[in-house]
Structure formats: structure tokens, C-alpha cells
Amino acid sequence: MRQQITTSLQSLAAAHQVKILFACESGSRAWGFPSPDSDYDARFIYVQKPEAYLSLSDAKEHLSLPLTSELDVCGWDLRKALRLLYKSNCTPFEWLQSPVVYMEREGFRESMTDLLPLYFNGRRQIHHYLGIAQGALATMQGKQIGVKKLFYVLRPLLAANWIATKGAYPPMTLQPLLELAPASIQRIVDDLIRWKTEAVESAPVEVPGELMQFMTERMRSLAEAASSENRMSISTAPLDAYFQKMLSC
């Protein structure tokens, strides 16, 4: 599948005359809890020829391939990625930490990662992760929830917990995030991960009472923490300089 993804990315880049700077896995396979039927979520950042940004027509900010049951491929123009980084959107922070990299222009991930601390906003990111967790939890029926949805509660909730505890942007993968949870919760989640590796993503699972209590209490306390986070504002100058540098490479 890796070769198929790389070939697809190369074909897409050639068809649209763009250069792919970075491509990675962004879904459950990168987060550390895939199911047997998990698809591949390939994401990428690309840059266009300088003249594309000087045209009266808008430069293409999004490229994708037709979705299949196995493969979901889409990416952002570098300018869009940097605009979202300026807003402390969580997605660039996650992509740049992916443990599965399909393509990279030498030094790109390291250089863009250097920008992350400048634009990290804990308040915004906690709100983002809590929104994902609450939306997934709303699909619960009685004591049961789809195993995929359960992990769509757990990972963002633990990411928000990391931000509130450490005051820093969270790791992408689940295991480091889990280290801040009580030992009993770690054991429960580890058992669920093992079960998920053998179950289809739609399989229902009954949420243990202790885990449900932990998630409910954490959501409440994190919502309070987010409301007390300081707002921040910083110049776009470092991003502008970075964008111009990438265009000249």
C-alpha cells in the first residue's frame, strides 16, 4: 500500500504541476489504534509555481484523489497550511508529528516544525479537541458506542488533557497521551486497543463505568481550563518569510 500511495501522490503532483513537500498518514494507523478494516488516510502539503500565486485566479488550495474503501488522499497548498497554522489549527501540528511519512522534501518537516511553538494556542486547541470528543460521544446509545467512535472520544480528550497539564501542543499518537491518565484507565484503554485490532470499526463496545466516569469528569474540567487560557496574538511575519523561502527553493 505504501508504494501505491507514493505512486498516487506522484501522479497527482504531475497532473497539477505542483511539488509535494510532505506527505504522511493521518488517521488511526498513525494514531496507534487501527482496525483490520481501517483505510489509509494520506495527507500532504504542496507548493505551486511562484506565478500561480501572482495570478488573478485563485491558486488551488486543496487537491485530492477520488475516495475509495481503502484509500483517502488529500492535501493542502502550503499557503493554506500556513494560514491554518497561524490560527493554531490542530491539523498541521498533527501532520508534522506523524510516525508514517510517505514523502518529504529534505528538511521540510524540521523547518516547519520550528514554527509550531510560535503559533500554539492552548485555548483554541482544547476547544477543538473537546468538540471532536463531545461529537463522538453524542453517538453513544445507552452504554454502547462504536469502537471507532470511542477512540474518537478518547484520543482528542487525552490530547486536550495534555495541553491543560503541560501547556504544550500534544503528541499525535495515543500512547504518550495515555501516560497522563490514571493507571487503571491506561489498562482499560490498552485492553480496548488490543480488542480493536481484531474488530471492525463499526463494532459496538460497552464503555466500562470507570472509563465513562473519567471521560465525563475530564470533559467538564477541561472545558473550565479552556475558558481560563490566555488569548494570544503574534505577527504573520515568520510565516510570510517561510512561505517566500519555500517558493524560492
Automatic annotation (TrEMBL):
Domain of life from the UniProt record: Bacteria
Name of the featured protein: Nucleotidyltransferase domain-containing protein
Source species: Chitinophaga caseinilytica
Q: Source organism lineage?
A: Bacteria, Pseudomonadati, Bacteroidota, Chitinophagia, Chitinophagales
